Amino acid sequence: MSKLASTFFSKEEKQKIMKAIAEAENESSGEIRVHIENKCAVDVLDCASHAFAQLKMHKTKLRNGVLFYFAIRSKKFAIIGDIGINQKVPENFWDEIKEEMQQAFLKGDFVGGLAQGIIQAGQQLKEHFPHQSNDINELNDEISFG
């Protein structure tokens, strides 16, 4: 595990991000993860797709996982959703969230931008995949590092 990726956020910042994930998932059956790596030497969507598969995000019952992927040193990030959520959201939905997040990032507000993006994804998940009484948290809410 790379030291830079795992120390990019402080303990308190990681807790804020995990709190945003828990809040976004609270009213939905959807699953959100954040994955941070140092470098992505190829297209960022390829790196994000690889992380998505490694984290087994395609294994959710309703295929409604969303990954926020960051390559710190490469200064790249992507948001990808599984087939279940992608069939429901507008075509440019992830790009819109990404643009809003990027505005916060340019101001140095990485935690705020990420939390905002997570909450927006959660709103779509809530609309299309509302929380069920028998819902279980299928994926870990902790930030993963590569």
Q: Main sheet, how many strands, which sense, barrel?
A: 4 strands, mixed
Low-confidence stretches are none
- Principal-axis shape equals globular
Broad structural category = alpha/beta
Order of helices and strands: HHEHEEHHHE
Q: CATH top level?
A: Alpha Beta
What is the distance, rounded to the nearest whole angstrom, between the alpha carbons of the first and last residues? 6 Å
What do you see in this structure?
The protein has 146 residues and is α/β, with parallel strands linked by helices. It has a single domain, classed as Diaminopimelate Epimerase, Chain A, domain 1 (Roll), CATH 3.10.310.50. It is built from six helices and four strands, in the order H-H-E-H-E-E-H-H-H-E. Strands 3-2-1-4 form a four-stranded mixed sheet, sandwiched between helices. Helix 3 (44-54) links the parallel strand 1 (31-37) and strand 2 (65-71). Helix 2 (11-26) runs parallel beside helix 6 (110-128) and helix 5 (93-106) runs antiparallel to helix 6. It starts with a helix and ends with a strand. The model has no long low-confidence stretch (mean pLDDT 89).
